[in-house]
Automatic annotation (TrEMBL):
PROSITE patterns: ABC_TRANSPORTER_1 (PS00211), ABC_TRANSPORTER_2 (PS50893). SMART domains: AAA. This is ABC transporter. The lineage of its organism: Bacteria, Bacillati, Bacillota, Bacilli, Bacillales. The keyword Nucleotide-binding applies. It comes from Paenibacillus stellifer.
Length: 243
């Protein structure tokens, strides 16, 4: 991502406030990145740009050297896939939802992988024929992650994906994704407000603040006590946002 900027638009579609400017970052090898920052800094917007679900005002994104504007967005999203905080279930059963991705992208449905992922996330008690809309918020969130993982992307863009999960279920998600990174060489950028989770799941931290993105190696970032980091980066006092 090079020199990427984004403004919020008003109802007339005119830029009303600069959200972030000139963000330049590069991922050159499989990485585990935690993306943190106070509410409203633009973390979700940044993830959505990276999935080509939104467009920057300026700057460019490249994947394997190829510019986003020269790439079929559908093809791009099979490589760099976004998982939303609010899981949206499509009409039909759980299995219909899991199959949707392969139907949309014209790929084979990997039933074995689907069953393994359901088990790893503690969802194997669910009847695949159950209506997805009847699932709980936490079940939907995990089904949505599995649906995306069935695409077998190389980069996962994860937007607070454990926000509605109990501690044990969240840990299963963390184990699945850290295992996926180490075994299959996938990268993720994971938005979280939970600094302890950020420490568990990342080697590198991206902090959004003051309209910019600041990159830190995990070990040096977390050498500062988490409550101090939280004060500075997650719940900054009024008017004291780090620039
Ligand atoms: N489509 C949109 N139209 C207008 N404003 C938007 C739109 N999308 C996001 N915003 C605004 O942009 C700002 C950044 O939103 P974003 O969701 O990216 O922040 P965030 O850092 O992920 O916040 P949080 O941690 O609360 O999820 C917010 O002020 C939000 O209201």
């Amino acid at each position: 991502m090079r020199n990427v900027s984004k403004s919020i638009r008003d109802q007339e579609g005119q830029p009303s406030k600069r959200l972030f400017s000139n963000i330049t970052v590069e991922i050159t090898r499989p990485e585990r990145i935690a993306l943190i920052g106070a509410s409203g800094q633009g973390k979700s917007t940044l993830l959505r740009l990276m999935a080509l679900l939104d467009a920057p005002d300026d700057g460019e994104l490249r994947l394997d050297g190829k510019a986003s504007r020269e790439t079929d967005p559908r093809q791009w999203r099979m490589e760099a896939a976004y998982v939303a905080q609010q899981a949206v279930m499509l009409p039909g059963s759980i299995e219909d939802n899991l199959r949707t991705v392969s139907v949309l992208h014209g790929t084979l449905y990997n039933q074995e992988l689907a069953a393994r992922l359901m088990e790893q996330l503690g969802l194997d008690y669910l009847d695949p024929g159950k209506q997805a809309s009847d699932c709980s918020g936490g079940e939907k969130q995990r089904i949505s992650l599995i649906r995306t993982m069935l695409l077998q992307p190389r980069i996962l863009l994860l937007d607070e994906i454990t926000a509605s999960l109990d501690v044990n279920s969240a840990r299963r998600v963390e184990e699945l994704l850290t295992g996926w990174h180490s075994e299959e060489g996938g990268s993720y950028i994971w938005v979280t407000h939970d600094l302890e989770q950020a420490q568990r799941i990342s080697d590198k931290v991206w902090v959004m603040s003051g309209g910019g993105l600041h990159e830190y190696p995990g070990e040096s970032f977390f050498s500062v006590p988490i409550d101090m980091l939280a004060k500075q980066y997650i719940q900054p006092a009024e008017g004291s946002l780090p620039q």
